[in-house]
Amino acid sequence: MTSSRSSTRRLVATALLVIAVPVVGAVVVRAVWFQDQARVVGVDDAIDRFRDTLAFVPPLATVSPTTIVADSMPLVPTATTAQSSIDGIIPGVYRYRTAGSERVDAVGGTSHDYPNETALTVTASGCGVWLRWDLLEERREEWQLCATADGVALQPVGSVYHEFFGVGQTEQLRCDRPVVVVPPTESAPQVALDCMLADLPWLPVWEVLGRDMVVVDGRDVPAWHVRMTVEDDDEYPEQTTIDWWLAANGLPLRMSSTTTSTSASDLVGDVRYEEQYVAELMSIEPLG
Questions:
Q1: How many CB atoms lie within 10 A of CB 36?
Q2: Rounded to the nearest 10 degrees, how much is the dihedral formed by the CA atoms of 260, 197, 181, 134?
Q3: Quick one: three-class SS letters along 66-134?
Q4: Which structural domain, as residue segments, surrounds residue 251?
Q5: Does any domain span residue 269?
Q6: Counts for the chain of helices (H) and strands (E), in that order
Q7: Under 8 Å between Cβ of 157 and 66
Q8: What distance in Å separates the CA atoms of residue 155 and residue 144, rounded to the nearest whole number?
Q9: Rounded to 5 degrees, what angle do the CA atoms 8, 9, 10 make?
């Protein structure tokens, strides 16, 4: 859902500052490499976190759907119940068959391969559901869907987390308005949003491409095909295309993405980030 443009630049620069400055040359590169890792988030871990959320958040809390906290902290849901206000979407942990990776080319380069199974946690929150997708402990995204009179809408807040070279960064996404991703009819205009990812402008364009069919666990499931694109051709370009195939209740049945971006760094020069993935829902029934 979100871009990695500013995250990549800051993470690489911060990582180099954290590493002992007196070492030079190949020793610096070696120290950086040893600090980078890619750790799998197990489904059992996601289930435990989901149950902890249910246990510690008041089930009848009457507060705003989300709370935006400091940039160093993740967005978190602030109202949780056993059922979602979006008809048919069941809170729990959903498993996705996954293939993909991310990489940066700074200080010799490093890459993270995504595991063949990832977990998306759906928690009832306020006007709908909060979704957290853990590709790795070092890579996750969070967003919120709400039921509206115009259909299921992606809310104008979210977050993205990246960790490279042992340094993590959560960046908040704030847009000027929601966007309907599951409309009541097949007619839906293209929507350009004005967003900030941390302190940088980010301008995604959303488009509902129409109805489709996705096979989940051997069954044909009706889906809405939605696409988000970012085309930034300035001095530090970004090209991102994200495709979602969503059930009528907004649950992702299939997700795919390709991203390339270039960011500036005073310490290591321009940093190129690349990511690609495909994730397919393994079962309509959640765990947890």
A1: 18
A2: 70
A3: EECCCCCCCCEECCCCCCCCCCCCCCEEEEEEEEEEEEECHHHCEEEECCCEEEEEEEEECCEEEEEEE
A4: 5-281
A5: yes
A6: 3, 18
A7: yes
A8: 5
A9: 95
The 3 state secondary structure assigned to 128-186 is EEEEEEEEECCEEEEEEEEEECCEEEEEEEEEEEEEECCEEEEEEEEECCCEEEECCCC
287 part of a folded domain: no
**Within a domain: residue 288?**
no
What tens digit of pLDDT does each residue of 139-172 get? 999 999 999 999 999 999 999 998 888 888 898 9
Q: What is the pLDDT of residues 228-269, one digit of tens each?
A: 999 988 777 889 999 999 999 999 999 999 999 887 766 667
Q: Specify the DSSP element, H or E, that contains 10.
A: helix 5-18
The residue with tokens 């704030």 is 174
Question: How much helix, strand and coil, in percent to the nearest 5, is found in the chain?
Answer: 15, 50, 35
The kind and range of the H/E element at 9 are helix 5-18
Tokens at residue 21, please? 């400055």
| 55 phi, psi to nearest 5 deg | -75, -30
Nearest to 153 by CA among 118, 126, 119, 172: 126
Rounded distance between C-alpha atoms, residue 191 and residue 204, angstroms = 8
**Of 79, 140, 125, 122, residue with least CA distance to 277:** 140
- Report the alpha-carbon distance of residue 88 to residue 106 in Å, rounded: 45
Verdict on whether the full-model pTM lies above 0.85: no
d(CA 86, CA 181): 13
The total of structural domains in the chain comes to 1
Q: Is residue 286 part of a domain?
A: no
